[in-house]
């Protein structure tokens, strides 16, 4: 997951402390869904 630094939503501002946790949770959820899909 790259490009968040250049995302128009953030515009280069510092991320909130909880935002990296959100990205981690999303990536874990996608990994679980892909495992279920390809299983």
Describe this structure in words.
There is one protein chain. By secondary structure, the protein is an all-alpha fold. The protein contains one helix and no strands. It has one helix spanning 19-38. The longest helix is centred in the C-terminal third of the chain and has 20 residues, at 19-38. The two termini are 23 Å apart. The model has no long low-confidence stretch (mean pLDDT 75). Keywords: Membrane, Transmembrane, Transmembrane helix. The chain crosses the membrane at residues 20-38.
Kindly list the characteristics that best describe this protein.
single chain; about 40 residues; mainly alpha; 1 helix; transmembrane helix; membrane; transmembrane
Count of DSSP-assigned helices: 1
Q: What overall form do the CA principal axes indicate?
A: rod-shaped
Give the distance, in angstroms, between the N- and C-terminal Cα atoms.
23 Å
Summarize the main sheet: none
Strand content: under 5%
Nearest-angstrom radius of gyration? 13 Å
Q: What is the overall pLDDT average?
A: 75
| Broad structural category | mainly alpha
User: How are helices and strands ordered from N to C?
Assistant: H
Keywords: Membrane, Transmembrane, Transmembrane helix
Ordered list of secondary-structure elements with their pairings:
Blueprint: H1 19-38
Task: Explain briefly what this protein structure is.
With 39 residues, this protein is mostly helical.
């Amino acid at each position: 997951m790259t490009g968040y630094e250049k995302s128009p939503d953030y515009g280069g501002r510092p991320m909130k402390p909880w935002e990296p946790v959100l990205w981690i949770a999303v990536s874990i959820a996608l990994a679980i869904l892909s495992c279920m899909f390809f299983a």
